[in-house]
Amino acid sequence: MFYLRQMIERDITAKLLQLSGKFPVVSLTGPRQSGKTTLLKNIFPEKPYVSLEDIDVRQFAAEDPRGFLATYPDGGILDEVQRVPELFSYIQGIVDRHNLPGEFILSGSQNFLLMHNISQTLAGRIAVLKLLPFSNKELSATEFAGQLLEERISSGSYPRIYDKHLEPADFYSSYIQTYIERDIRQLKNIHDLNLFSRFLKLCAARIGQLLNLSSLASDCGISTFTAQAWLSLLQSSYIVYLLRPHHENFSKRLTKMPKLYFYDTGLASHLMNITESKQLQTHNMRGPLFENLIIAEMLKHYSNAGLEAPCYFWRDKTGHEIDCLIDMPDKFKIIEIKSALTFHSDFLKNLTYFQKLNLGKHNTEPVVIYAGEMTQKRETFTLLPWNSDLLSSFN
Predict the structure, then answer these.
(1) Rounded CA gap, 382 and 393, in Å?
(2) DSSP class of residue 245?
(3) What is the distance between the alpha carbons of residues 54 and 316, in angstroms, rounded to a whole number?
(4) Among 60, 42, 30, 56, residue whose Cα is nearest residue 6
(5) CA triplet 294, 300, 304: central angle to 5 degrees?
(6) Which value, in Å, is the radius of gyration of the alpha carbons in the chain?
(7) Which domains are seen in the chain, by residue range?
(8) How far apart are CA 348 and CA 110, in angstroms?
(9) What is the DSSP letter of 246?
(10) Paired strand residues for 368
(11) Which pLDDT belongs to residue 359?
(12) Distance from C-alpha of 319 to C-alpha of 215, rounded to nearest angstrom
């Protein structure tokens, strides 16, 4: 196990500082334990910090929002602010009167509630960012740069695992019980948490697969409607991510279902009862978890830049597939993701097939990301190892 010896600089810092100089309110969302509080306290040390998780504080804010906000006349950092939705309209009034950049910094781990309230009261006044767990780039300048692939997958990327010398199994057991189950109950009153836990494990077992809600619901013993509702909760809590198929009509015989991934492979591994990294050397989920790791890296790259990830997959009904397609203004990056340690020319088969399609104005740049160590820029494609700064390597 690797341990944290220094404060790791987060890539989102520059964007956060930039936006706080332009907008009166900045929101930082993301999963619990992704490092939001630590980051905000470090880059805004002059601002008072208050957490609405504290029962007394929450009661004060809910019963007397004007009095509560008057306690912070120069603004501040309000954590888990979605717990008191009444505050948003009062914050609107304050920032409209003061018209000062960076007056309030809001953070929260429940994206649905936070975004809903923002859309009602703070539209046009707020910049919204999302902080995910550590990326390869953030870890590359630390002692974690030499971490083995299997350990990275099974340990995941949550800062607390490294900072507090926690075993992944201990961290994720607590994470599921203390955070996921509590947050889910705040969003929706689920009476049978054992059934919900089964649903969560079934989602982990479907990583990298097309999302078949009927099959998922049937295996869990719930209705399709309930499965959809529970999946939406996991999305809004930053547990699962749905990678959409690309929408452009290259062919009428294209898959329309999304693919299911987790934001963190450590959590997914724990749900699959993978307790030691060496299990991944021969585990049948090694390939899907490796693919998940790379997709998560793509999401982190764009989130840290304050952008929505233009990432998709492409699959036709004859089985040709592009694991990740990045839709840039003037071209596609088409990416094949392989958990093998050695490059093989077969990896190029789907990339070559896609390039032969009539894409009109679009150019394509093929990339293979694999579990090996070699970086190569060849005439027809780029080969990248899993632990490189992926998107920066071929932008």
Answers:
(1) 9
(2) B
(3) 51
(4) 42
(5) 155
(6) 22
(7) 13-130 (3.40.50.300), 140-241+256-280 (1.10.10)
(8) 40
(9) P
(10) 336, 383
(11) 61
(12) 20
Distance of alpha carbon 379 from alpha carbon 366, whole angstroms: 10
8 A C-beta contact, residue 255 and residue 315 = yes
How far is 163 from 157, CA to CA, in rounded Å? 11
CA gap 11, 25 in Å, rounded:
20
Cβ 72 vs Cβ 106: under 8 Å: no
Using the Cα atoms of residue 174, residue 140, residue 263 and residue 286 in order, give the sign of their dihedral. negative
DSSP 326-359: EE-SSEEEEEEEE--SS--GGGGHHHHHHHTS--
Pairing of strands 240-243, 259-262: antiparallel
Strand order in the sheet with 126-130: 49-51, 76-79, 104-108, 25-29, 126-130
Bridge partner residues of 334 (DSSP): 325, 366
Task: Tell me the per-residue pLDDT of 96-141, one tens digit each, with 9 for 90 and over.
Answer: 999 999 999 999 887 756 667 777 788 889 999 999 999 989 988 7
Residue linked to tokens 């993701």: 337
* H/E run at residue 115: helix 111-121
Nearest 5°: phi and psi at 33?
70, 20
* 68 SS3 class: helix
Q: CB of 69 within 8 A of CB of 62?
A: no
Task: Extract the tokens encoding 265.
Answer: 């492979």
Give the pLDDT confidence of 151-194 residue by residue, as tens digits.
999 999 999 998 888 899 999 999 998 877 777 777 777 778 88
Q: Which residue has the tokens 């970086």?
A: 375
The three-state secondary structure class of 240 is strand
Of the candidates 97, 130, 103, 104, which has an alpha carbon nearest to the alpha carbon of residue 115?
Answer: 130
Query: Which pTM does this prediction carry?
Result: 0.93
Q: Of 40-49, 78-87, 176-185, give the lowest mean pLDDT range.
A: 176-185
